Amino acid sequence: MTENHERDAGSEPTESDFVDYGIDERPPLGESILLGVQHYLTMVGANIAVPLILAGALGMPEPLWPRFIGTFFVVSGIATLAQTTLGNRYPIVQGAPFSMLAPALAVVGVVQATNPTGMADWRAALLGLQGAIIVASLFEVAIGYFGLLGRLRRYLSPVVIGPTIALIGLSLFDAPQVTAATQNWPLLFVTLALITLFSQYLDSRSRVFALFPVLLGVVAAYALAVALSLAGVYVPGTSGYVDVTGIFEAPAVVVPYPLQWGMPQFEASLAIGMLAGVGASIIESFGDYHAVARLSGVGAPSEKRIDHGIGMEGLMNVFSGLMGASGSTSYSENIGAIGLTGVASRYVVQVGAVVMVGVGFVGYFGAAIRSIPDPVVGGLYVAMFGQIVAVGLSNLKYVDLDSSRNIYVIGVSLFAGLAVPAYMGNVAAAAPDGMGGAAFFRQSLANVAVVGPVLGTKLVADTVYVIGGTGMAVGGLVAFVLDNTIEGTRAERGLEAWAEIAEDEGDFRTAFERFGADDTDPVKGD
Q: Taking the CB of the first residue and of the last residue of the chain, which one, N or C, has fewer CB atoms within 10 A?
């Protein structure tokens, strides 16, 4: 650890030699700004993709797109500040969830098909979506703050958590930014090679390379793409092309604010559909908490920390609904950045969040981020999500890998977590024109003998469809059931070894305990 690291009062050295800046450490402000931007740079692809997909599905007028994109960054920054300050206090970025995108698109389709409001279809659909997110998120608030999820922790061994985290990383192995038929493989390879060079080969040569491999790699690859585009090597319509003029055509300032699109519309059936997305988001976040704890060099999260994290995510989902975004959840991308850079500082993530709130009001920023070509994002995905896969598998060091029951549970859950989402994707592809994947799946279940009337209901079918399309949810549920029903000892399952390194309930203090109590003695990891 270098001498210029400024540590919060009372914090203890990190438990991992791998971490350069621990959770409670504060790098100098200038360095923290760059490190914070780097954390956010890892997730801009996802945080831009969701609003772009949603705006296209809504049919939103293009002049409104920069403000719509800016809203997502403002919500992301505020949600991250709330989570790192008042929630579970892990150095984890919050952003727009893909797990809620499928039900969101289903809500949009339903409202636009039956629009009774007299408003433009895009506005009516967005307001219906806002109402559905707000209502569904209130259930997430209750699940978190009533302690329902934390109580499951005692049944979750490394045999369950390992495959779940690995599937978070594997979920994007077939993302179009990586596997598109028109992929610009040289540019993707350059991006990946630069990140690898800075993080693995040159990290010991300079702290700049060690701390900023993602920022350096992406900026250098983007600059190369811009140069080749201006030189005419990359032409419009080809993978890797950057439209520089489009950046300056965006409005200089956009002003997102609550209820900017109008008053949310509330309909029970739409809210029920969104519950599936919220459920998948909760499962994903549960795995993310364990992954960030592992990479940050601290013990597995306590029940209290998990509950307050999920509760805060629910509150920020409500806030997202009021702002006109599509929800908020923990992001796996910046967890991968911790693995590459060794920067697990909460302060760094908070500084980055403040920057994101600011740039959310700058139209040029959204346009610039939107211009990052897919091959650059794809190279970033390979590096980031590969790290997360490895983190998940590293949890298996606590279990008995000579045990046939453990091998069976791990193998089946990983396979199911890849196969079932692929099946759901095939269902969506086979849907007739004009019918979404969720509606086609619902129709198919309704035709099942005897139980069809139950399976074909919107609540059951949409829940199965959304969770079935989320790899970490499928794998986690399969592993949970098998691990808790197949006979095995606590030592065999890794529970005893994990208990030795897990944080105590007293290691985490809630915001009320920290700000409202007279006792100001620091507690490790709070």
A: N
What is the value of pTM for the model shown? 0.77
CB 376 within 8 A of CB 222: yes
What 8-state DSSP symbol labels residue 252?
Answer: S
Please give the biggest Cα pair distance in the chain.
70
Contact 394, 16 (CB under 8 A): no
Characterize 255-264 residue by residue with b for buried, 16 or more Cβ atoms within 10 angstroms of its Cβ, and e for exposed. Answer: ebeeeebeeb
- The answer to whether 332 and 291 are in contact (CB under 8 A) is yes
6 pairs with which residues across the strands? 26
Residue type, 489: T
Closest among 399, 162, 171 to 294, alpha carbons compared: 162
Per-residue pLDDT at 1: 40
Distance between CA atoms of 21 and 41, rounded to whole angstroms? 19
CA 90 → CA 69, 288, 523, distances in Å? 26, 10, 14
Which amino acid is residue 200, in one-letter code? Q
Which tokens belong to 213? 């491999």
DSSP string, 218-229: HHHHHHHHHHHH
CA dist., res. 249 & res. 245, Å (int): 7
- Residue 184 to residues 52, 219, 339, 408, 425, Cα–Cα distance (Å): 21, 17, 26, 39, 24
| 63: three-class secondary structure by DSSP | helix
Strand partners, 94: 330
Q: How many CB atoms lie within 10 A of CB 522?
A: 14
Q: How many distinct helices (H) and strands (E) make up the chain?
A: 25, 4
Can you give the pLDDT at residue 236?
92
Strand partners, 253: 362
Q: Which pLDDT value is given to residue 12?
A: 40
Query: H-helix or E-strand containing 7?
Result: strand 6-7
| Residue recorded with tokens 């609003």 | 51
Provide the pLDDT for residue 134.
Answer: 96
User: What span, in angstroms and rounded, lies between the C-alpha atoms of 78 and 76?
Assistant: 6
Coil, strand, or helix at residue 486? Answer: coil
Q: What is the DSSP letter of 28?
A: -
pLDDT for position 387: 80
The DSSP output letter for 20 is S
Residue 288: partners with Cβ closer than 8 Å, 6 or more residues away: 92, 165, 168, 330, 331, 332, 335
How many CA atoms does the CB half-sphere of 68 hold within 13 Å?
Answer: 23
**In this structure, are residues 437 and 423 in contact, taking their beta carbons and an 8 Å threshold?**
no
The dihedral through the CA atoms of 122, 128, 134, 136 has a sign that is negative
25: which 2 tokens? 């450490």
